[in-house]
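Worked example 2:
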Amino acid sequence: MIVVAIIAVLAGLAVFSYSQIASDTKFESEVRAVFAELEQRQEQHFTERGTYLSTGSSDGDTHPSTPRPPRDEPSELHPLPDTWQELRVDLGRPAAHCSYVTIAGDAGDISSAGSIATGTFNFEPPARDWYYLLAECDLGRDENEFHFARSDSDQVVTRTR
């Protein structure tokens, strides 16, 4: 009986761990796909107009407005906000679990950077025009995961808070 109880506890832990890993992987693949689209559209916008474009007024101005926990249905992405349409974003998906924003600024100017970028990710603007991408994902356990990518790096940094 003791062996069966131990196996049941271990099986329960394994299922819980697997569900956490599965939801984290779902977020990561969603974020990478959305970031790839936003990066491409930002670079296209810069090539055509000589400037990057912010899709929100601050790093807290995300679309959709709040992330959805992994067990909830994802939030509808359409209709896209005007700034996303101006970037000609085509996500190829109707819904998402995470919320997204891209913030742009002039070379060396930190005034539009936002508190999450500067505080959580220690963002310092580069010496050329810049943008960054931010995704907020609700892990469903009283913490959110933030993914951050900047125009002058291929790296995506993730922080939980």
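The first helix runs from residue 2 to 49. The CA atoms of residues 63 and 80 lie 8 Å apart.
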